[in-house]
């Protein structure tokens, strides 16, 4: 199965693109569990992410991906994966990331990472908190891909340009 990951800093259009690609290719997409989990935590307790949330978030993401994989025949679009959780964990917690997340995040389980660039408008919400650190975060995300040796392509431009490039990349993977 071809597994495509939308990966990159917050507010760079990953969810929008994941939905569009899944619809275009008539397949399933895996939503970002962390967003749902943390929004509920914010709504219920007015608290942001803590170290204690990392493993439940990872488990929830893996569960969603496993369920969607069972339903998909040849292509799965992932709004994120554990490598993104690893990057954020290490960024927010001075290099700390639970070993279980590191181990799973660094497995080469995906066909391609589509790294979303920061040339999209910032969309503020309850959870997004670093509108001025987008360039730094992009460099960190790309450095992680390079360090792991994972295949990736950078998506830049407007929504249509990103979509068209992603379709072209996925089409090539499907015909290999």
From TrEMBL:
One of its GO terms (molecular function) is kinase activity. Keywords: Kinase, Transferase. It holds the Pfam family AAA_28. InterPro entries: NAD_biosynth-regulator, NadR/Ttd14_AAA_dom, P-loop_NTPase. Transmembrane segments: none annotated. Residues 3-162 form the NadR/Ttd14 AAA domain. Coiled coil: none annotated. This is Putative ATPase/kinase involved in NAD metabolism. It comes from Aequorivita sublithincola (strain DSM 14238 / LMG 21431 / ACAM 643 / 9-3).
